[in-house]
Amino acid sequence: MDARDLIENLKAELTCSICLGCITDPVTVKCGHSFCTGCLLQCKEEDDETFTCPECRGVIRHSDLVPNKQLQNLSITGKRLRSHLLQSMVGLTTCDEHGEKEKFFCEEDQRLLCDSCLLAPEHKNHHVLPLETATDKCKDKLQETRNILEKKELGFKTALEKVRRRKTRCKEDTYDLKQSVISEYGKMHQFLWDEEHEYLKRLDQESRDNLVKLEERKAELSQQIQNLQRMIVEIQENLDKAPLEVLQDMTGTLEKNEECLLQKPELPSLGWSTYSITALREMLMSFQRDITFDPESANPHLTLSEDLKKVKYGSVPQDLPNNKERFDYVLAVLGAQTFTSGKHYWEVEVGEKTEWELGICKDSVSRKGQLSSSSEDGILYEFDIYQGDPLLGANI
What we know:
Layout: H1 3-13, E1 26-28, E2 34-36, H2 37-42, E3 50-52, E4 59-61, E5 66-67, H3 69-92, E6 104-106, E7 111-113, H4 115-119, E8 128-130, H5 131-239, H6 243-256, H7 258-262, H8 280-285, E9 302-304, E10 311-313, E11 343-345, E12 355-361, E13 379-386, E14 393-395
Antiparallel strand pairs: 1-2, 1-5, 3-4, 6-7, 6-8, 9-10, 11-14, 12-13
Helix pairs in contact: 1-3, 5-6
């Protein structure tokens, strides 16, 4: 190994793999690698307890950093020796072919030349410079490149610092936003709890009022039953009397109990108030589905509107093809939309008929003959809907 290789090896040993410069204020970690203290600390996040070695990716703790004074002294000495050794090497190199000192440098061939090499035909039109001039020119280029790299390094360090600040700011913003969401939803929760409390309070009062009505009506019905029983006993007694007494007392008995004969066992009308529930409709609307009827499944007695959203019963059946999808006995029609999972909401308005049956079924539901409310026949859910009751939807 020649002197130049030895110098380059020494330079490599004293180079920080992070900044690629001569190692300064070196520290050695437990995996054996050494770096500039400042360069290594830049690899550590501010709030992280551990980080990784840039060479082997081993885990490093701050307590693992050991200052290396010997390497620091060797770095200073090597830096001083390197320039002297390189200068002395200029006088030591000789041309292997001619045995003369190599004092020139050919830029085309990138090699050192002696006086005899300079006169050779192969270098006649080449750009040849004195060795010192070529070295200075090379140093100028390297210094220019170094300056550009240092500026870029500064730019990347600035960007890295900005990223670190943004990371910290992101965590702070996330915390602030979470607190804001918790606070705002907390207000909504409190509002809903208060509304729920008032709603239940009103329902409790209406329940008490209805129970009072029922208790009063219960007492009235009990009294009416007693009156009817007394009338029955009185009539029975008259029936057991002699014929003349029966005839004489009949008119008076009937007149006296005429009021009881006119009474009917009426049930009290219970009143329940309805109150709007905050955002309930808005929540339901997020699951709303636009349902239309499937004309191929409609029983011939059912007539559909043009928009396929209304159905009307007719006593005279329509002349329709008896396809396999059509209900032939049950007065039914299916929706055109199908669902396999999820939450779905729709509204059904019933007409003047007092009772409807609405539900959800499988595609395999039997279309011919009677149906039973059995899953074997394809019925999943079925509801009896009376006039005024809404059907909201289903969770499949």
